Amino acid sequence: MANEEVMNILKSHNSCAFDLHGCPLVVFPADTQDKLSSELSKAEVVDFIQYFLCLHNQKQEKQRLGSVVADLRNASLPTARVVAETLLLLERNQRTVHSVYIVQPKKKEALKLLLKLLAPSRSFKKVFLREIPELFNHIDRSQLPAALGGYLIYCHRSWVAFTKEIDDFLQAFLSAVRRLPSCISGLQALSRLPPPAAAAAGELRDFCSTNEAKFLQLRRELGLDALLTHCERVVEKLRYPEKEPCYQAMAGTPLFTHTAFDMLQNHSRITAAVEKVELLWQQAFGKPRLQLQVFQLREDALQITEQIKTLLEEKLQPYKIEIAKDAATAVKLVSEFEASVHIPAMALILCAEDVIHTVAEILLLDGQARERWVLDVERLKEKLRAAVDFILQTLRAVSSYHRHYSKARPRRPEESV
């Protein structure tokens, strides 16, 4: 793409200005012509005009030539030479320009030079005009900016900023498209790697860690995630152009409409590619990751079963249920049992249930039968629950008895005073 400085010196009227032949216009504005010979090369100007026409023709059924407008009334000899030689260079390889409208220089030597340089060329139509109003015979005033006597509302800096931002995205998009086949091929190769047969947890972790690192590296090189974020930012600006000055200035133009349509299509393409990568990720590591999760849950279950056995052996089996003789003692026994046995037991039961439910979901996803150790955890958990519930219900029943008894028994005369 032509650089930003070239776009600031030439004007393309954002693909929405045309001459009466229907050719899109490129303008050499009078106020920046002095920069043509001092800051730009003719090749850069040619590149820009070709880039602009390429932008315009992307959505056209028929490829159109462009037309050039140059207000050279106050042009110097060097400027006249640069404009003429640029037009000739533009036509060297293939026909690009339909018509050239030149408001001719006031300086005779500049006009003479133009006529001399352009006379041999027959690839485009040359229209020399004495005054600006003569342009209106070839270009409607609605297609010309104020500097050329027209009333086209056009902000060139907004066009430059908008075009540059969209082009930056397109360059990143095309770069990702070029990398996509080789990266997808690499990801597919990783997805076909078989996990270690009857692997232990350590071997499975090594397999996943090594190959996930390769997978992530390929994914970073592809750059789809960053590209999708970039695309979503641009689409958001296109959806709400009032939030961004250059987008607001471009809203309603054909270029804006075409760009919005293209960006929605690009978003769909990128999203599909991201989903493809996610699918390959699942194919490569979905099952090994589930197996690893089952290994970890089994380790957790072993710890829980050991803690349950310890609680049963140290707290519940030797526990002797004491039948309290009064309400205060009964309340104390309930409180002590809840703090020392019931609360930690319920915490272990909840952990065991969480492991059991999680394993059930994983095995359901993987189409496997329930593993034996899960049944062992289930039985031990229920054994703990039954033992704790029996003691706690007994202690609470004694406490409840004393509470109701103290309310129901008649008071002695000395207790009433």
Report on the architecture of this protein.
The chain is mainly α and 417 residues long. It folds into 3 domains: 4-153, CRAL-TRIO lipid binding domain (Phosphatidylinositol Transfer Protein Sec14p, 3-Layer(aba) Sandwich), CATH 3.40.525.10; 159-286, Orthogonal Bundle (Topoisomerase I, Chain A, domain 4), CATH 1.10.132; 319-407. Helices cover 66% and strands 5% of the residues. The protein is built from 13 helices and 4 strands. Strands 1-2-3-4 form a 4-stranded parallel sheet. α5 links the parallel β3 and β4 (125-129). α3 crosses α4, α4 (77-90) runs parallel beside α5 and α10 crosses α12 (372-408). The chain is elongated and about 125 Å long. The chain starts with a helix and ends with a helix. The model has no long low-confidence stretch (mean pLDDT 83).
What structural keywords apply?
Phosphatidylinositol Transfer Protein Sec14p; 13 helices; single chain; 417 residues; mainly alpha; 3 domains
Q: What is the CATH topology descriptor of the largest domain? A: Phosphatidylinositol Transfer Protein Sec14p
CATH class of the largest domain: Alpha Beta
Can you tell me the CATH superfamily of the largest domain? CRAL-TRIO lipid binding domain
pLDDT averaged over residues? 83
The chain-level structural class is mainly alpha
- Helix percent band: 55-70%
The shape is elongated
Instruction: Give the helices and strands as they follow along the chain.
Output: HEHHEHEHEHHHHHHHH
